[in-house]
Design brief:
The chain has 124 residues and is an alpha+beta fold. The chain is built from two helices and five strands; from the N terminus they run βαβββαβ.
Length: 124
């Protein structure tokens, strides 16, 4: 089975972030929570600086070679959101195509899908 990756934008932040004097971005907080929730799941988690979805902050991508890939956004950096992301990514990992039946989606990810990308040609 090819590994499934959750990529978290660690630079995502709200417009009023600086004015509130917050030291850590929402993306950093969400990344910490996703990393903790994904421990012992077999999922790979990484951070990146900017997924270019600033209007949809906080953003994550779920991808695996040969499968549909998804970008999700508009999350609050909460434990509930992180667990929903991880739970959905586990379902993605278990799917042969990356497509996950809607009826099995965790509530925490419903309404958060931004884009879906087909697998690259020639990907196994």
């Amino acid at each position: 089975m090819t590994p499934t990756w959750i990529t978290i934008c660690d630079t995502c932040k709200r417009d009023d972030w600086a004015a509130k004097g917050i030291e850590r971005t929402d993306g950093q907080v969400l990344a910490d929570l996703v990393e903790a929730a994904a421990a012992d799941t077999g999922l790979n988690v990484r951070r990146t600086s900017c997924l270019m979805g600033c209007d949809h902050s906080c953003n994550v991508a779920v991808q695996a070679s040969g499968k549909l890939c998804y970008t999700l956004g508009r999350f609050e950096p909460t434990e509930e959101a992180a667990q929903g992301i991880v739970d959905w990514a586990v379902l993605h990992a278990d799917s042969a195509t990356g497509q996950v039946p809607y009826r099995t989606w965790p509530v925490a990810v419903k309404g958060h899908f931004v884009t879906r990308h087909p697998p690259l040609p020639g990907a196994e």
